[in-house]
Amino acid sequence: MGKKIKSEVPNPNNVVNRDILQRLNFLYQASAYLESISRQSMGSVRTGTGPSGSTSGPPAGSTVIENADPPPTTPQTKTQRRKRDREQRKGRVIRAADVGQGYVRTMRLIAQKTTVKM
Asked: With 80 as the cut, is the pLDDT of residue 58 above it?
C-alpha cells in the first residue's frame, strides 16, 4: 500500500448510510421547527385578550376536533371498530409540539435499528 498524498481531498460522496443520515437530519430539523412554532403559539395564548388570559379559540399550531356521542361498547365488524376509533380520536387537541416529539421518537428508533449514533 502506497503513501497517501496529503493534498488529496476526501470525497464527500463516500458517506456510509447517507440516506439514513439524511432522514435523521430531516426529522431533527422538522422537530426543532415544530417546537419553535409551538413555543411561539404558547406565547400568544398567554397574552390573550379575554378575561383572565383566555382566548377565543384554540392555540395556533393545534387542531381541535369536536366530541361526538360515546361509541358502542362492543363493535361487531371491522368497519364498526374503525368508526369507534375515529369517534374516540375526536375531541383531542393535537399540538405541533406533539408531532415534533413523535418525530424525535422516530429518529431515536431509526438510530437504534441502524446503529447510527445521533
From this structure: no
